[in-house]
Amino acid sequence: MSDNNLIQTSEFMAYNNDAIEYYTLSTCYIEETCKIKLNETKQRFYDIKRDPYIEIIDFEAIIEKRPTEIDETSARVLKYKSPSFMASVTFRFPPIHSNECWKVGFIQACDCMIFQNQYGDFGFSSWEFPQLIVRDVSMINDSCGRNYPWYGSKNQVVTIQGPINKQTEHTINMRDLFVPWIPWDIPTCEGEQSCLTHIYRHQRFYVWLCAMNCTKNELLIIHTIRWMQTIEIDVKPNLYRGIRATLISNPEPEQPIFLKRNIFIPSCALQEPSANNAQLLIWKPTQGEPLVVVNPKYRDRSTIKYFSRYLLKN
């Protein structure tokens, strides 16, 4: 069976992009003075005795202490909005007496995602990263996909271009939350029947606060954060919209952890693809063959391996 026969797309029914929210603080854009080759980037842990003294004034990482919000107003999809993960750091950077260019910001990667939607006895749909499923990589970059390896391109990272003859103060922020659309009907049908019975999502992330010497192409890891969320929703398809879905997972999310020891960032987590571009939605019926409903925006050797292993038949 050919690849084209296995894959179709759904333009409106299923949606799973994480919401990367940008703060509206004014940002000074500085023209880049050097190009970074991320596959050649050297990384090590920040050493206060060896490296420029980066004074951390305030550093906070939390997940909102509120339940996941469920929205049943649409006749075609259930929507939910998870509590937000938020990180903010204010720091002072020392004077730079040369033409060196530095960046300080957040890098995020996902190393586990289980996101399955059950449709009774008909089967279930699953959002998946082919790269993680076939185990070609240990993590996948989770960012806006426009400014690798950084989480975003605005207030999530700051560029400091020398020479600067005085200490400078900066604040960077990042925010991540889940806002998917999940069809009431079987995702291959694009109808309005109520077949959805259960939603389960468990996802884990690492976040690194890093400083990069762009001139030397060297990445310094300052702090490492671990966070995760589990969302489970029970759905009674025979009830009216508005009372069908019930959150059954813990309404108060587990808070992020600052690791006592930093860990290195796998090279795969510094480069494309981003999580939003790599993911696909597959329908796995109780009877019949699996079918990709939403194609990944990015394809690589891992994607081809995934299709060959789980979809294509000899």
TrEMBL record:
<dbReference type="InterPro" id="IPR029638">
    <property type="entry name" value="FAM78"/>
</dbReference>
<protein>
    <submittedName>
        <fullName>Uncharacterized protein</fullName>
    </submittedName>
</protein>
